[in-house]
């Protein structure tokens, strides 16, 4: 992995203030709903424009948060290791906060909710396990930061070996972020999965929009801490992550020149690499006050030395920091300091290695193939190849950095419609197996598929003549066209092709190939 050692960036108050629109921009989906709803001034829309599979359901109990009163569920039977995706329009290279909300409400009839995976584009984002929260009658909320690689972001639910009933989702939000946010992360390689975001010394309600213009959730932290909270107003200049000013109205700290121990995040973390952002602003406004100067260590390792905090504010970032188990942050006054440290807020994300993306040309071709056939497999949404355990039904793909579609096998899948000419854009195909369906129309020109070895189109309703271009595919050694409505004659370059297993019987007016 890149950046094996911690990589720190300090953005000081000298950075000019950044100006952004404070209107909340994004897509807010009330999953399973049938009509739009306005909640806290925000328009929420039904999900039927973003997904074509699954079943919308109402929970038996209505909740104050209307997004928790409905869900969309997805069938687990015969669908292990298949994904079901919402496709959300996006700006290519745009940065987005993706938030999913889950409240089970007993919708499947089981006492406990199912466990399943959630996926963003080609990356497994996290396991969704809402059992503990549901036992406390709470919703489970997941948040991540991702950059759109194309014109849409796919957010998918996927059944794994532990999924014992239908996966479900209550709400989905995709919020546009300013480019400066978390910009020390290489979002072409990584995504961020939220672990904790807290306002320290604060014990009020959740801080979110409009205090946070991107509707990030800042949880209260410190109501049971013996250190002293402060509620004075401070003046804070622009930070690149643009935290809300409200988090600087309280802090955890001490005026005595003694260390401050902060066990945070409060949960044990898996052994991984993390992004850490800590925010500070001194609440003393006296012009003669010397800055608070202190060292920051994380689990005994120096994170930043001699940080001088003034009322203008400071923020320290680490975009590649290893953590495992419980975490302890210690703020220790620098030698000779007459006043103790403080901290206002913090964020921790697990750094996710992105799973990659199927070659764009192949994605476009697969989407057009999907559009040309009726009743395609239910899981034909999102990335066709990735994550690898959740590739589309009937689709096999290459390994390595350039992911290509190599086999398309929809034999006996009950599909109809036609074979899109865009199939010829899948130039890595070695096998096309579409036999025993109800496909109509003609056989497209496949001469560009130089690697094609097997072409099975038997037992369909295809018409027209057999393209002579098939005889020019040197690697083709198996061509099954029997039991269709093909007419004309078998091209001579197929009849005499060495090593070709050719089957064409059961077609009207099609004389058998010469012996």
TrEMBL record:
<keyword id="KW-1133">Transmembrane helix</keyword>
<dbReference type="InterPro" id="IPR032675">
    <property type="entry name" value="LRR_dom_sf"/>
</dbReference>
<feature type="domain" description="Malectin-like">
    <location>
        <begin position="29"/>
        <end position="351"/>
    </location>
</feature>
<dbReference type="GO" id="GO:0016020">
    <property type="term" value="C:membrane"/>
</dbReference>
<dbReference type="InterPro" id="IPR001611">
    <property type="entry name" value="Leu-rich_rpt"/>
</dbReference>
<dbReference type="InterPro" id="IPR024788">
    <property type="entry name" value="Malectin-like_Carb-bd_dom"/>
</dbReference>
<feature type="domain" description="Leucine-rich repeat-containing N-terminal plant-type">
    <location>
        <begin position="362"/>
        <end position="398"/>
    </location>
</feature>
<keyword id="KW-0433">Leucine-rich repeat</keyword>
<dbReference type="Pfam" id="PF12819">
    <property type="entry name" value="Malectin_like"/>
</dbReference>
<dbReference type="Pfam" id="PF08263">
    <property type="entry name" value="LRRNT_2"/>
</dbReference>
<keyword id="KW-0677">Repeat</keyword>
<keyword id="KW-0812">Transmembrane</keyword>
<feature type="signal peptide">
    <location>
        <begin position="1"/>
        <end position="21"/>
    </location>
</feature>
<dbReference type="Pfam" id="PF00560">
    <property type="entry name" value="LRR_1"/>
</dbReference>
<dbReference type="InterPro" id="IPR013210">
    <property type="entry name" value="LRR_N_plant-typ"/>
</dbReference>
<protein>
    <submittedName>
        <fullName>Leucine-rich repeat receptor-like serine/threonine-protein kinase At2g14510</fullName>
    </submittedName>
</protein>
<keyword id="KW-0732">Signal</keyword>
<keyword id="KW-0472">Membrane</keyword>
